[in-house]
Design a protein that fits this description.
This protein is mainly β and 248 residues long. 3% of the residues lie in helices and 35% in strands. The chain has 1 helix and 14 strands. It has one helix spanning 240-246, and strands at 11-19, 22-29, 92-95, 107-116, 124-130, 137-142, 148-154, 157-158, 174-181, 183-191, 194-195, 199-201, 210-213, 226-234. The strands form 3 sheets. Strands 3-13-5-6-7-8 form a 6-stranded antiparallel beta sheet, with no helix packed on it. The longest helix is centred in the last third of the chain and has 7 residues, at 240-246.
């Protein structure tokens, strides 16, 4: 029914409905110290924490896309054939030309629900609107200091707000937002319901043509190590009170 039962010590698990009676199930376990081999079993049970099931002759389960991987969390499905493979980073690129009428060049707000990991101490970009470079952009990232990072640049001139001091801790969902339009104090960040310190933008970034998720504006570095649960774009500059609401 989409509910995780009892987990033994050292294990975490998730189950997510993907429709039509199918569920995506994950188990992450820390290998015991001194353990020389690890087995993975998939079986049926008729009660929580009851590993013995005799069956009834008719019921069963269909399993598809099973995979084992080394890491602190489950990633997307990695197709393999006859050998192990190295997983490439997930990068989402959305061309604004395909979203006619959505983008507002005069004002906007980007809100992202993100679960970062802490294995990489460098900058990890979460989401950005840009011209494909850092010359014109509005970007959100996890900074090297482990807090939210925000960069707004118009024609090479920066108007970077200061993030609140909230730490973007690992394996926890955080809600981060960046709102901007021209005028004094109209570039405002927010993290988990707390506002940062605003910056002033004289002119909006021009030539904005692409949304990138999980990588820097040029899609060349600073990949996100983590998950993006949801992204929302408002084609208006949300008020400070609204920013606090949508990130709480």
């Amino acid at each position: 029914n989409g509910t995780v039962g009892t987990n033994p010590a050292g294990s975490t698990a998730t189950i997510t409905s993907v429709g039509n009676g199918w569920y995506r199930c994950t188990v992450t376990r820390t290998t015991d110290v001194g353990q020389t081999s690890t087995g993975i079993n998939i079986g049926l049970a008729d009660a929580d924490n009851s590993p013995t099931y005799l069956g009834n002759g008719t019921s069963g389960a269909l399993v598809w896309g099973a995979q084992a991987e080394l890491g602190a969390f489950a990633t997307a499905y990695i197709p393999t054939v006859a050998s192990t493979v190295t997983r490439s980073a997930d990068i989402t690129t959305i061309l604004l030309a395909a979203m006619s009428g959505l983008y507002n060049s005069a004002a906007g707000t980007l809100v992202v629900d993100v679960i970062p990991q802490l294995s990489n101490s460098g900058n990890q970009f979460i989401g950005s609107f840009s011209d494909g470079s850092s010359t014109n952009r509005a970007s959100i990232f996890k900074s090297t200091a482990g807090i939210g990072g925000f960069r707004v640049t118009s024609g090479g001139t920066a108007a970077n707000p200061t993030a609140p001091a909230n730490a973007l801790t690992g394996n926890v969902t955080h809600k981060v937002a960046l709102a901007l339009t021209t005028g004094t104090g109209n570039v405002m960040p927010a993290v988990n319901g707390t506002l940062g310190t605003a910056a002033t933008l004289s002119t909006m970034p021009t030539g904005i043509s692409v949304i990138r998720l999980g990588v820097n504006e040029a899609a060349s570095a600073d990949w996100l190590n983590g998950h993006i649960r949801r992204i929302r774009y408002f084609n208006t500059r949300l008020s400070d009170a609204q920013l606090q609401t949508v990130t709480t």
